[in-house]
Design brief:
four-stranded antiparallel beta sheet; 4 strands
Length: 100
């Protein structure tokens, strides 16, 4: 397995946590933490894996969970490019929703 492949156990953990969110259940630290630098109701899921840690950035809406980005965490801080990409995706999603 290369360092950029997610293990089966980590995929199962991610699926379980995403299902909890879809059911409207709150997920807290250490599995999830708020990401106010990205936007209101934005969070990151922390998925530990064999050799690294995965992050799933998401935004909670009343009727949806929007997955903004998935990446392997390699540094202590979320890269600025990831934050900017997530913010752009939120804007695009919300504009598309308004258009119908």
């Amino acid at each position: 397995m290369t360092s950029c492949q997610i293990s089966e156990l980590a995929r199962m953990e991610a699926g379980y946590l995403l299902r909890q969110l879809q059911k409207g259940l709150d997920v807290f630290l250490p599995q999830s933490r708020p990401m106010p630098t990205i936007g209101i109701n934005c969070h990151e899921l922390r998925i530990p894996d064999e050799n690294l840690s995965w992050r799933i950035i998401y935004k909670i809406y009343a009727d949806a969970i929007l997955i903004l980005e998935v990446f392997a965490k390699k540094t202590g801080r979320t890269p600025k490019a990831i934050i900017e990409t997530c913010q752009k995706r939120i804007l695009r999603f919300e504009m598309d929703v308004k258009k119908g």
